[in-house]
Amino acid sequence: MPSRKQRRRRAKERRHEWEEVWVDEEGNEVEPPSDDDAPRRNGKRTASAPARRQTGMRNVQPPSWRRVGKRGLIFAPLMFLTVTLLSGELTIAQRLLNTAFLLAFFLPFSYAMDALMYRMFTKRSGTATGRKG
Questions:
Q1: Three-state DSSP class for residue 22
Q2: N or C: the chain end with fewer CB closer than 10 Å?
């Protein structure tokens, strides 16, 4: 059932008279096509509307070590802070070593999660690429 806002918009569209104007690439008015297969955009027919499917799915990028490295640069100070707060008796060298140890597990795990998300996205959307990995 349409919401109240959608019903008001539909009623407003019916109240006003709309004229369809077709324009070619140079900006000249042309006759509208006779077939009903003409592309649509926002309920109005246009001469060159892209045929694209709109879904609520987010576009997931393929996994990359560069993106994982950037994520590591963001999380490394947070991990260092956490190690500092949880074990204050350690020296700075030991804290850095603990942070490096945590990053050694975090970075490959982050890459694996990106790869898993990308595989699930391609399987659901049906957009298979020629890349294997």
A1: strand
A2: N
Q: Name the amino acid, one letter, at 57.
A: M
* Residue 79 token pair: 């991990």
Global pTM reads: 0.53
Q: How many percent of the chain have pLDDT more than 70? A: 76
Provide the 10 A C-beta neighbour count for residue 95: 19
Tell me how far apart the alpha carbons of residues 14 and 10 are, in angstroms, rounded to a whole number.
Answer: 6
SS3 45: strand
Q: How far is residue 112's CA from residue 115's CA, in Å, rounded to a whole number?
A: 5
Domain ranges, ordered by start, for the chain: 6-45, 65-125
Q: What is the pLDDT of residue 14?
A: 78
